[in-house]
Design goal:
The protein has 480 residues and is of the alpha/beta class. The protein has 15 helices and 14 strands. The longest helix has 35 residues, at 352-386. The relative contact order is 0.13.
């Protein structure tokens, strides 16, 4: 390494070098939490791409210039999740203490797969997994790991379920008659993605119709009976706690009892809703969770951690170890201590540290109160819609998510279904481009709908009223 590069490396370890980045982030916090400025960009993908259309830098530049470019070219047109009128996707405005911890994680750069590569972070992960397993009602044999998110967590859990149903699948594959997986029609795409990735094929997936946007338990029973009569093995049932589209919770107790009676693996996708365990008012929605064999949980959603911080929990940690049974003498020497023996990833950041810091700083009860507040604002938004004739709510919120439609300024019946559908397809992008707020969308029962997800503790009822009024104004403009 040349002396000049080494000199720059050493200079960048000084506190004054880091201060530029600290000021950048702190300034972003201040500007966005005040609700000033646009929520997102008005630029097109092509206009943003042009900003970065440049040759590969061959020589470095002063750090101050790099920080200024981050401020000018990156922060200016990124989605401002801290803005109180960003109520779009299930991505959090992360807890500040967890944001600052990212620097520690990056500086230490521990790979939490092997104890000798991450001696402290590995043990912190074991402790945090134990805390979360206790919250879920799992016993002393439980275990798990941090993951990149709910998709990896569900894949990992279904891999373990596949191993339980087909112990020789790792060596011999799943064969011509693979077992089936039953899941709710509103389940996250992680389930069907896992079916393909695990070699089971989409034809081995059986969607169960819903009742009130949650899995219809009677339909599940009928489908399980049909598989039994047909002589087909059932690998798993996947229930959802906090669906992506509507935030709905399946009846975990009824589903769990059905699975226990039949000896079927129950996986609960709680990526969004498992954090209700921290809430004194909402944890009842997870009644029966302890009957699951595995759980997906994303602290980077309703525990408001920076991406990424997912988690998979299993009632018996041996299920994960058997699912990943491979010999790797060049890595694994620590036996049960090494986390790589129960994880899909090998190189893995110590993301558990930001979860540990968040719990130390704000407490589980404090984060639970944040969860309650987000749900309260969503319920208040539902009430606002009920007072108007130009919008309709499509369900009562079970957490912080609500789907609704713009009916037109004349209210219900003033426009055809096709006209209402067209309005809702165009309303969201038009409103978001205005910069006044940001909402998302989905499709329910074949109809395009608007959707809000309240993720920001600073979002008030007044902010939600402003969002609704802004949507109405944009809707009237589109009608005109």
């Amino acid at each position: 390494m040349s002396d000049d590069v080494l000199t720059e490396l050493e200079r960048d370890t000084a506190p004054e070098a880091g201060a530029g980045f600290l000021d950048l982030v702190a300034g972003y916090f201040t500007e966005t939490r005040a609700g000033e400025g646009p929520v997102s960009t008005t630029l097109t993908p092509e206009e943003i791409a042009a900003r970065f259309d440049e040759p590969l830098p061959r020589e470095g530049r002063p750090l101050e210039e790099v920080v200024e470019r981050l401020r000018r070219d990156l922060l200016s047109d990124s989605n401002r999740l801290y803005h109180p009128r960003y109520v779009g996707h299930q991505v959090s405005p992360p807890l500040p203490a967890a944001v600052w911890t990212e620097m520690v994680i990056g500086a230490l750069n521990q790979s939490v797969a092997v104890w000798e590569m991450s001696p402290v972070a590995t043990m912190v992960e074991h402790r945090v997994v134990r805390w979360m397993a206790d919250l879920a009602g799992f016993g002393p044999d439980a275990g798990g790991t941090l993951t990149s998110g709910g998709t990896e967590a569900t894949f990992t859990a279904l891999l373990a379920a596949r191993n339980a149903a087909l112990p020789d699948a790792w060596e011999n594959g799943v064969g011509a008659d693979p077992p089936v997986v039953l899941y709710g029609e509103h389940a996250h795409y992680a389930v069907t993605r896992a079916l393909g990735e695990l070699g089971l094929g989409l034809r081995s997936g059986i969607p169960i119709p819903s009742r009130g946007f949650g899995m219809d338990v009677e339909a599940l029973r009928a489908a399980l009976d049909a598989q039994e009569r047909a002589g087909r093995r059932v690998m798993a049932v996947v229930a959802t706690a906090g669906s992506t589209a509507t935030g709905s919770f399946d009846d975990l107790r009824a589903i769990g009892e059905e699975c226990e009676r039949r000896g079927v693996w129950l996986h609960v996708d709680g990526a969004h809703g498992a954090s209700a365990l921290l809430s004194s008012r909402h944890r009842g929605r997870l009644d029966g969770l302890h009957m699951a064999r595995s759980i997906a949980w994303d602290p980077h959603k309703m525990m408001l951690l920076p991406l990424s911080a997912g988690m998979v929990l299993v009632r018996d940690r041996g299920d994960l170890e058997r699912a990943f049974a491979q010999r790797a003498p060049y890595l694994f020497h620590g036996g049960a201590v090494d986390q790589g023996v129960r994880s899909f990833m090998c190189s893995r950041r110590a993301d558990v540290l930001k979860l540990w810091v968040a719990l130390q700083r704000y407490g589980a009860d404090g984060i639970g109160r944040v969860y309650d507040g987000l749900c309260d604002v969503a319920r208040a938004f539902r009430g606002m819609i009920g007072e108007r004739r130009d919008f309709e709510a499509l369900h009562d919120p079970e957490c912080n998510i609500l789907c609704f439609r713009y009916l037109g300024s004349g209210g219900a019946g003033s426009r055809s279904d096709a006209e209402v559908d067209a309005l809702n397809r165009t309303l969201r992008p038009a409103y978001n481009r205005s910069g006044a707020g940001w909402v998302t969308a989905t499709v329910l029962e074949g109809r395009p709908v608007l959707r809000v997800t309240v993720m920001n503790p600073r979002t008030t009822v007044g902010d939600m009223r402003a969002v609704l009024e802004g949507l109405a104004a944009e809707g009237r403009r589109l009608e005109g």
